[in-house]
Specification:
Elements: H1 15-37, E1 41-45, H2 49-71, H3 77-85, E2 89-93, H4 96-106, E3 110-116, E4 119-121, E5 124-126, H5 129-140, E6 146-150, H6 155-161, E7 165-168, H7 174-186
Parallel strand pairs: 1-2, 1-3, 3-6, 6-7
Antiparallel strand pairs: 4-5
Length: 187
């Protein structure tokens, strides 16, 4: 993986190509767009290329659809272009340390967090990393929408107790659950 930023997995969804392009654009433009337009940020914490390759097309499709709806209300081409540029940025972290760095830098502009439960903290896989992240964020922001995603159904009650929503990665309705959460929280 050295020399690569992120690896993506073909899941049969051609929207992954747009997601990869948008991911790179968001990563490169986030600071500029926040400074110029106060753009909002969604932080996704996932260390599995399979899962983030599944989630990102869903997230980008929803955000782009909502942005296009707003653009249709624009007065002229310049106004529509500004609205398109001001869409929320999606930032992808693969470790607790990356997620905390993003949260610390963009905390005033974070729209929400979608996080796996188990991922690296300080270079070692931590089965409670997502809960640590929630605890740290909740100390500063009690109302920020957060969803924990896990293949371990026993994490559902723990997520709710920590003040987060929960999505079961084993669910046959995983994509619909993701869409519903994003639309209700960010739409």
């Amino acid at each position: 993986e050295s020399g690569f930023d992120k690896m993506f997995v073909w899941t049969g969804n051609s929207r992954i190509f747009l997601s990869i392009i948008k991911y790179v654009e968001d990563k490169l433009n986030v600071r500029h767009d926040i400074a110029r337009a106060g753009v909002r940020v969604v932080i996704v914490v996932e260390d599995s290329p399979y899962y983030y390759s599944t989630f990102l097309p869903i997230l980008y499709t929803i955000i782009m659809t909502q942005t296009q709806r707003l653009m249709s209300q624009g007065l002229n081409d310049m106004h529509r272009l500004r609205r398109m540029r001001a869409r929320p940025k999606i930032l992808l972290a693969s470790t607790y340390d990356e997620a905390m760095e993003m949260y610390s830098e963009f905390r005033e502009n974070v729209l929400g967090v979608l996080s796996d439960v188990r991922y690296p903290v300080g270079g070692t896989i931590d089965p409670r990393a997502g809960f640590k992240l929630i605890e740290t964020i909740r100390n500063e922001s009690h109302n920020l929408p957060i969803v924990l995603m896990s293949k371990e159904p026993q994490n559902r009650e723990k997520a709710y107790a920590a003040g987060a929503q929960f999505i079961d990665k084993n669910s046959s309705t995983l994509i619909q659950d993701m869409k519903q959460f994003v639309q209700t929280q960010f739409g």
